[in-house]
Design goal:
- The structure is a single chain.
- The chain has 22 helices and 16 strands.
- Helix content is 48%, strand content 13%.
- It is globular and about 75 Å long.
- The structure holds phosphoenolpyruvate (PEP) and magnesium ion.
- The site of magnesium ion has 5 residues, from helix 17.
Length: 582
């Protein structure tokens, strides 16, 4: 029995059989293929190679356009290498004659050449060796991509152990057959973690290297409440976890039974509790759990499945499905937040130029850079607004110029629809996410130009504390309990109050019980949380007096260290709702 610790990102306990998925980024699954499969494996290799060549050609085109022919030529050389008939022949011969799996054959041939080139010593040749390694990785990525799709077609329940899962892979998980997952990499508010919560799959991420200790088929316990992963547990441990699993289920059920009540503090202050969703199907679930509407619909997930070329109708139907669940309540549709870790399959080369994707072309910047894409989405949102309380929200706004440009494009779209006599509501509220410190600092100026704010603490924390939200190496620096974050939130609330606009918190901080009294005390009157947390968050609000929350905020603001804020908030939660302290 071996216990590993990581970051708990989606609650619940699961006990099941391990499916080890990638020892490292590119683990070769099998060395050999069956005789009958040889032809289809050769075709699989050719398709992967074709995909790689297409990608290189796209990059070449972009390099030509943006930087000139000299840079484009670099990729021309890569393309030549990928299409080298000798290389292709060698790989295919290994698949046909030795029955090597394409992944194994590709690695053997390309690594072989790369090592030979490296051994010759000259700088020019060692650069070619790097190109060979890159080509190997690209072909493997295409080959493994196909294999990874099998995750959506599992036939029996498993616990997935992986180096990493991308948001698109996580989105494709079949929740009937994935009892939990554990990854070596990832951070508390990475999109993979958020999706785990949405799918209600217990998950622990950022465990560090552990795959070498696990064997496929072994029993694993994943404790998504405490961030523990137990490999090959003994009988006592299994009994203990089975007990805690059923206690957790009973408590959760008791909260569900109280789900439809309003969230009102003991002294009568009403707090809105909205749901965060990534897929339209989740809206119904939010309704069942007692949500006051949808406070954040992450529409970019429409692009992260198998198809990335979405039409206006695709958008419209998705939005209709959500608003139909909440005909009289607010539905906040956030415009595309693509980029960083959310890259649609067909747009890899568009994003690949960025040396630091979190600070690069992402989110509203992508929409402003691709107005056709942006307008298509805005048209669909406005069309879905007829007789509904649909609200538009722009993500990752960093300057007033971004906001004004986005509003200008929205104005154009409204004019087009009017001209075309296509109905839409003329009273759609337009708000923005507060995710960048520049906005918190100038909150009042921004507040004058929007109908509402929604604080995205996931990004606000990473940009304020310079700690990547997905990187376990810096997870100890990434915390909502940092005094600077408390002050940022206070700034936003004050700026909004001066202009009379409401503020929601839709980042994960509002789904974490210990932060809820603090947020209410800081003046927040609406939170938008991961669906499964709705009953829990309502329970905290109903167990709390506003005066108590204000006292908690006052005290927390006097503390200087995140560590002290953290333990103070845990202590306070224990007094308010002891059952919720994990
Ligand atoms: C946030 O940054 O807090 C947020 C809600 O947006 P996302 O997690 O989708 O980046
Ligand atoms: Mg964000």
């Amino acid at each position: 029995m071996l216990t590993k610790r990581g970051i708990p990102v989606s609650p619940g306990v699961a006990i099941g059989t391990a499916l080890v998925f990638g020892q490292e980024k590119f683990k070769i699954p099998n060395q050999f293929v069956r005789v009958k499969a040889v032809d289809s494996e050769v075709i699989r290799f050719r398709c992967a190679l074709e995909g790689v060549c297409r990608e290189i050609a796209e990059t070449q085109q972009q390099a030509n356009d943006r930087l000139g022919g000299k840079y484009g030529a670099i990729f021309g050389a890569h393309l030549e290498m990928a299409r080298d008939p000798k290389l292709i022949d060698e790989i295919e011969t290994l698949i046909r004659k030795r029955r090597y799996a394409p992944e194994f054959a590709v690695s053997k041939v390309l690594k072989g050449y790369a090592k030979e080139l490296q051994s010759l010593g000259a700088t020019y040749l060692s650069e070619r060796a790097t190109d060979m390694f890159d080509l190997e990785k690209s072909i493997l990525r295409h080959l493994m991509g196909e294999q990874r799709e099998e995750l959506s077609n599992l036939t029996e329940p498993v616990i997935i152990l992986a180096y990493n899962l991308t948001p698109s892979e996580t989105a494709s998980l079949d929740r009937r057959n994935v009892k939990a997952f554990v990854t070596e990499s990832g951070g508390a508010t990475s999109h993979t973690a958020i999706l785990a919560g949405a799918l209600e799959i217990p998950a622990v991420v950022g465990v560090g290297a552990f795959l070498n200790d696990a064997i496929a088929g072994q029993t694993i316990i994943v404790d998504g409440d405490h961030g523990e992963v137990i490999i090959d547990p003994d009988e006592d441990c299994l009994i203990q976890y089975r007990d805690s699993e059923s206690t957790h289920r009973r408590y959760h059920q008791s909260l569900l039974d109280k789900g439809q009540r309003d969230a009102v503090t003991k002294d009568g202050e009403r707090v809105q509790v909205y749901g965060n969703i990534e897929f339209p199907e989740e809206a119904e679930h939010c309704k069942t759990l007692g949500a006051d509407g949808i406070g954040l619909y992450r529409t970019e997930f429409l692009y992260l499945g198998s198809r990335w070329d979405r039409t206006e109708e695709d958008h419209y139907h998705a939005y209709q499905r959500v608003v139909d669940q909440f005909p009289t309540l607010p539905v906040v549709i956030r415009t595309l937040d693509l980029g960083a870790d959310k890259i649609p399959g067909g747009m890899t080369s568009y994003f690949s130029q960025s040396p630091n994707p979190e600070l690069g072309l992402r989110s509203i910047r992508v929409s402003l850079d691709n107005q056709e894409l942006f307008k298509r989405q805005l048209r669909a949102i406005l069309r879905a607004s007829v007789n509904r309380d649909v609200r538009i929200m722009f993500p990752l706004v960093a300057s007033l110029m971004d906001l004004r440009q986005a509003n200008m494009i929205l104005k154009d779209v409204r004019e087009d629809l009017t001209e075309q006599q296509i109905p839409f509501s003329t009273s759609v509220q337009v708000g923005m996410m507060v995710e960048v410190p520049s906005v918190a600092i100038m909150a009042e100026e921004f507040a004058r130009e929007v109908d509402f704010f929604s604080i995205g603490t996931n990004d606000l924390i990473q940009y304020t504390l310079a700690a990547d939200r997905s990187d376990p190496a810096v997870s100890k620096y990434y915390t909502g309990a940092d005094p600077a974050i408390l002050r940022m939130i206070r700034l936003v609330v004050e700026g909004a109050r001066r202009c009379g606009i409401p503020v929601t918190v839709c980042g994960q901080m509002s789904s974490e019980p210990r932060f809820v009294p603090l947020l209410i005390g800081l003046g927040i009157r609406a939170v938008s949380v991961t669906p499964h947390a709705i009953p829990e968050i309502k329970e905290i609000i109903c167990s709390l007096a506003l005066s108590q929350a204000e006292e908690i905020a006052r005290h927390a603001l006097q503390l200087e260290l995140a560590r002290d804020v953290e333990s103070y908030l845990r202590g306070e939660l224990k007094r308010i709702c002891p059952q919720l302290v994990k």
